Amino acid sequence: MLKAYNKNIIVAGTDEAGRGCLAGPVTAAAVILPKRFKNNILNDSKVLSLKKRNNLRDEIQSKSLCYSVTHIFMEEIDEINILNASIKAMQVCIEKLSTKPEHIIVDGNRFYPFNDIPHECIVKGDGKFLSIAAVSVLAKTYRDAYMEEIHEEFPMYNWKKNKGYPTKEHREAIKEHGITKYHRKSFKLLPDQLKFAF
Hints:
Elements: E1 11-17, E2 26-32, H1 50-63, E3 66-72, H2 74-80, H3 82-96, E4 103-107, E5 119-122, H4 130-151, H5 159-162, H6 168-177
Parallel strand pairs: 1-4, 4-5
Antiparallel strand pairs: 1-2, 2-3
Helix pairs in contact: 1-4, 2-3
């Protein structure tokens, strides 16, 4: 069972989803959970079933003190790079929280100081602390929903299944059909980096 980071201060957890994708936004979430929040199922979103993630999203949203979700889209990712886009998405989420946190915990190993609020980066934090696990669920479910939506526009890439990640099927579709407005042009979209006509 995951634990709270510190019940004596107001802690916001933050995480992102979609950093390694070839298409679609990078999506971040931030949350402040109540001190007495408990959940035996909540864990890193990657180890949860779709049904559990969706049920947990509803519970997190209804029981959290506050939460927010932010997409940073392809054009900005290409402009500022994926690391900066990921951190910006997390910081925008924290800025949007209705309660100002006294401390920020971040999944992973990179973050930039934000508004003089102390922060700690925690590798694999989504498998250790409740608030990071909660934001991993929010970020993933919101991003997956967005990818399923744009799948309808370009079904040949099968984004409803691969969610924009570099699967063999996704790369084959890029090879056959070229790229779309949803692809990140700064990423190596194919191993041999074919040239595309824009």
